[in-house]
Write a structure and sequence with these properties.
This protein has 259 residues and is mostly helical. 73% of the residues lie in helices and 0% in strands. The relative contact order is 0.17.
């Protein structure tokens, strides 16, 4: 149930020698589609936080609106019928997940939400892969790679919160270890963006935030009664999301952030 989509070769960092330019509209579409996979994990995270007594309904409603607006735009501007089909499949799965995320819910119902968010994530990942393949461009691959880090930070936090609720604990252990390893791989493969003079500073800050985030994960055992631990992990994940969104945008000269 919690087997995250495997990173494909299209998202492996590639050298930028002799690269051709990537149209701004296609770069934006890859960034947007990558944002959808992040939002699936963020909404599940925020829903679970509410079950644990930490209300972030403003962020949840914002995430829902951003998902719907982005999905509608991506549907309208799909560059091929194959890519359109991926977004159509995502549109069909979205209402059930949206309703589950927005409803008050309960801890026993969390397993259903977990299944829905994995389905939405899988379709969003397939759309990203299709867009990157359609682009056939090293910059597109880097946008996909950097954008994946946004999702992984939210996914790790979601899994931590599921464990705090006592849901899917054994599955979460395996999935979290894989997500942490994937984030490390992304950091190792990431290239410094060539389009902004301050990109190296952004990447260094990302490394620092990731170190703080993993340190907190190792320090705070998932516990629904440990409000400090829950809030610390959540806040750090939002800071990591912000910096990874910036680093993703810096992969293209348009410098357009998603959040």
């Amino acid at each position: 149930m919690l087997a995250e989509p495997t990173r494909t070769l299209t998202e492996t960092a590639v050298p930028r020698r002799r690269q051709r330019s990537l149209p701004a509209e296609l770069a934006h579409a890859i960034n947007q589609a990558g944002c959808l996979r992040m939002l699936s994990q963020r909404m599940a995270k925020l829903h679970t936080l509410r079950l644990l007594g930490i209300n972030e309904d403003g962020l949840l409603n914002q995430s829902v609106a951003l998902f719907e607006n982005s999905l509608n735009e991506l549907m309208r501007k799909s560059p091929s019928s194959q890519i359109y089909a991926h977004f159509t499949a995502l549109t069909e799965e979205w209402p059930a997940f949206r309703d589950a995320a927005l409803n008050a819910g309960s801890v026993p119902e969390l397993r259903t939400l977990a299944e829905l968010d994995e389905t939405v994530l899988r379709h969003a990942q397939q759309a990203v892969d299709a867009l990157v393949q359609h682009a056939g461009n090293p910059i597109a691959a880097q946008i996909g790679l950097y954008g994946r880090q946004r999702m992984l930070a939210q996914r790790i936090t979601k899994l931590y919160l599921y464990q705090a609720c006592g849901v899917c604990e054994r599955e979460c252990d395996t999935a979290m270890a894989q997500a942490r390893q994937d984030f490390e791989t992304c950091l190792q493969n990431a290239e410094v963006a060539v389009f902004a003079p301050y990109a190296n500073s952004v990447l260094l800050l990302e490394h620092d935030l990731w170190a703080a985030f993993t340190s907190a994960l190792d320090h705070f055992v998932p516990d629904r009664n440990d409000r400090i631990g829950l809030q610390s992990i959540h806040k750090l994940s939002e800071q990591l999301l912000e910096i990874t969104d910036i680093s993703t945008a810096l992969q293209h000269p348009t410098h357009k952030v998603s959040l």
